[in-house]
Amino acid sequence: MSKDKDKEDTGKKKKGGLMKILLLLVLVLAGAGGGAFALVTFGLVGGHAEAHDNTPKLILKGEEDPYAPVSKGKEEGGAETVYGEGGDEYRVAYFSFGDDFTSNLKNSSALVQTTLAASTRRDGRVLMWMKQHELALRSAILVDLSDTPEEEFMSPEGKDRIQKRLTASINRILKQNEGFGGVDKVYFRSLIIQ
């Protein structure tokens, strides 16, 4: 009888030990699966190829811009641009707004009339986007100009602050519409305060 009891105890121990091993194995596999899921979800391993960065790139002087707008000079047999060796290492491209901007000034009976241009060191997509969204850009610029007091136009420092605000407004509109700004600076081509 004691042999039968020992066999039963051994059988129970084997079943209990086997259950513990299976439970441990299930927990280890679940943990490994959860860890692998977390790594894939956060993009640390597998699943996705490197995300392609589709933002406009800085263009070095002399480097070809894959998105360059067609130049009128080249259509007429104009010469290639020759860059100097000094200054910034990146080429600068300009966008000129077609029409003047005319606006009342904040808390004043004065008017401002200005013609603006903007610069970018990025590829030609920024220029294309400025052309495409010119209406929205013009509206944002007019809002900024109308919210500017006359006194701010009277000093070089004030004009610099206005240029920075206009640059920020243009970049905000481009980011809203295209996901990327890219304008480095706004310039006054003409400026009249009346």
UniProtKB/TrEMBL annotation:
It is a single-pass membrane protein. The chain crosses the membrane at residues 21-45. Keywords: Cell inner membrane, Cell membrane, Cell projection, Chemotaxis, Cilium, Flagellar rotation, Flagellum, Membrane, Transmembrane, Transmembrane helix. GO terms for cellular component: bacterial-type flagellum basal body; plasma membrane. The keyword Cell inner membrane applies. Coiled coil: none annotated. Pfam families: FliL. InterPro entries: FliL (IPR005503). Controls the rotational direction of flagella during chemotaxis. Belongs to the FliL family. This is Flagellar protein FliL. It comes from Qipengyuania algicida.
